[in-house]
Amino acid sequence: MLSNNRLRIEGGVPLRGRVCISGAKNAALVLIAASIMAKGETILDNVPYIEDVNVLIRILQEMGVKVHWNEDHSLSIQAPDDMIRVQASADLTRKLRASNLLLGSMLGRQAKVAISVPGGCDIGLRPMDLHIKGVQALGATVDIKHDSIFAERENSKGAPIYLDFPSVGATENIMMMAALTPGDSTIENAAKEPEIVNLASYLNAMGASIRGAGTDVIRITGVPELKAVRYSTIPDRIEAGTYMLAAAATGGEVVLENVIPQHVYPVIAKLREMGVVVEEQNPGELLVKTPGKLKPVDIKTMPYPGFPTDMQPQIAVLLGLSSGTSIVTEGIFENRFKYVDEMTKMGAHITVESSTAIIDGVQSYSGASLYAPDLRAGAALVMAALAANGISRIYNIHYIERGYEDLPDKIRSLGGEMVKVNDGAEDSDAMRRMMLKVI
Ligand code: UD1
Q1: Sorting pLDDT into bands at 50, 70 and 90, what band is 428?
Q2: Among candidates 47, 38, 119, which has minimal Cα distance to 79?
Q3: Interval 345-357: pLDDT, tens
Q4: Centroid of ligand 1 to alpha carbon of 397 (angstroms)
Q5: Residue 164: CB within 6 Å of ligand 1?
Q6: Whose CA is nearest to atom 32 of ligand 1?
Q7: What φ, ψ does residue 342 adopt, rounded to 5°?
Q8: Pocket flag, ligand 1, residue 334 (CB < 6 Å)
Q9: Are the C-beta atoms of residues 392 and 370 closer than 8 Å to each other?
Q10: Cα separation values, 100 from 7, 15, 151, 281, 326, Å
Q11: What DSSP state is assigned to residue 400?
């Protein structure tokens, strides 16, 4: 059903102040998935209150896992000692691409799993061939029928696995299953994202034997069981990057708290090239300010430590306000320029040819009614609206709520003019116009 919930943003106010970055969505999701492999009650700290986490919690609860929030971003998880229900409802799993991470963790702890082909943002094909090849190499049999993946393992054994592409999810799934699979496994051409290192450290704290996470080759020796521990999620490098860019786009000055600067270095490097000042003030704090006109730069998204695809729409918004032409090439997902039509409504000059966007900087954006096409593109539109002259209304905000905790509150704490307007509240004229346009 079409929702009328929206963000109303009055742009043109430079963001100023301090903002605390939440735990990382992508790290929290995989730590939660891995927790079902432990015996006993796990406590995960610094878990963000976001919709993707809530959907994964509901999936696990349906499967018989006890999950509840404690005070202050801490989550308790306890899987039953016997079998977990092998499949959650398709309605829920389709909402969340990361539900595919239950393939590896379920196969680690028990002989059978079935997952509906997962959903998430529509940013490209996002196949699962590498995940499937990986668990098959470890001895699982996999059958795909009616939009579901059924997998079973019997006598599974460690194996060498080479990934054709350093897929984050495939590396995570293989690492989880291999942690409880007898014998030695290696993952070559593994993903090196900070979330992979966070997962490996967590599994090791649970008693696993994993070396090399964060490099191209991960070596895993299977152990018979994993114990429940208390562990913390790393800060969200994409949320941090989004606030850094929002500060720069509005010409403001913001200090980010709870960041690991090394994790955002690929973004910092590009911001500095553009003329933005980024300084590490105290441990875990970054100051961002823009002294003058932004310079254009070229960017290509790549696996970590390259420039993250999850920051591509946001950096495009910033480049659109620079004093020249920039070229942005998307190297990971094939469908990540869906924000361009919305940006055009705001006065941006962006042309897309295949996987490349050519961005000619403009003086300023103008407020408009906008539709978030996916999570990160939605965040980029919020940034553009904050920088724009006039009022913007952003619809489809369920995408943004999947991954950004308390966005309106955090932006308001920085002086930005942004409110969430719920279904049926004021502003119905905008909705009427939108409905007419859709019809
Ligand atoms: C994760 C992140 C997502 C981020 C992406 C890339 C989570 C929950 N999500 O997604 O935010 O944008 O990493 O940094 O952590 N591929 C295949 N076959 C496979 C798997 C992937 O061809 O079996 C391809 C994909 O189509 C894509 C590329 O590999 O082109 C990268 O995907 P992958 O690294 O797997 O991304 P996700 O784990 O889905």
Answers
A1: very low
A2: 38
A3: 999 999 999 999 9
A4: 23
A5: no
A6: 167
A7: -65, -40
A8: no
A9: yes
A10: 30, 37, 12, 39, 36
A11: H
